[in-house]
Amino acid sequence: MAAVLSPLRSPLRSPLHSPLVGKWGASYTTEAEALFARFTTPPTAARKVLINSFIVSLKSAGVWTKLDALWIMAAADSQAARQNWKVDLYNLTAVSSPTFTTDRGFAGDGSASHLTTGFTPSTAGGQFALNSSHLGVWSRTNAQTAGVAIGARTAAGSHQSLIIIRSASDLEVHRLNQDANGASSASTDSSGDFIARRSGAAATALLRNGTSISTGTVASTALTTAGVVLGALNTGGVIGNFNNYQLAAASIGASLSDAEVTAFYNAKLAYLQAVGAA
Question: Which residues are bridge partners to 158 per DSSP?
Fold first, then answer.
């Protein structure tokens, strides 16, 4: 008799779409339970399993404790998409109506739309520190742009923290807690997972999908006094440098090692694949 593969064990079935998930009273981490309680529309049992698995993966890899904020914008609805998974602070605020698409994320219009985080590096007092910090975004759009994916600076050329993932001349730009601009490297694909990190007083890097594509040696100077925004750049309270990328995820926190960046990427990829965003 041919063997019958249980749908619970099939490697081809996504937990988000399995009708059997949650029927035997799954248990969740305290962090996941707290997040579920903040969603206006309660998540399905299948999505709870997916979110919980994501958080468990980050905790196991040592990434969770290094985060100040994690936004998974590829969510069931726009309210859930704006929540900071790490803690009930720094929840996103949509400005000028960025377009939300279920299980895909928010997209700007290139002229005014963006999301504010409420996270100001100089006063947050969290994991994001002068010589140990990261900014991250997952873009679902591959296009040249003059805009910034995530960032803030006290003034032009002062205390800059930002990522440009593909400029109009096919270059990446990453700056963290620095005044000088630093070097740029080639970047011809703005889709995927990007993490800019500062791991020391004169050590930065930009990684795409877990692999380093650029490094820098510009010295750190100070944490910006401007709040970080997504889909644009906050320069001392003036928002500009907009882009029209669709962002599925973003994060802020301490520097991450190569292994931690890879684990973070894999956890995001598993979630986004399950909801159809990657």
Answer: 155
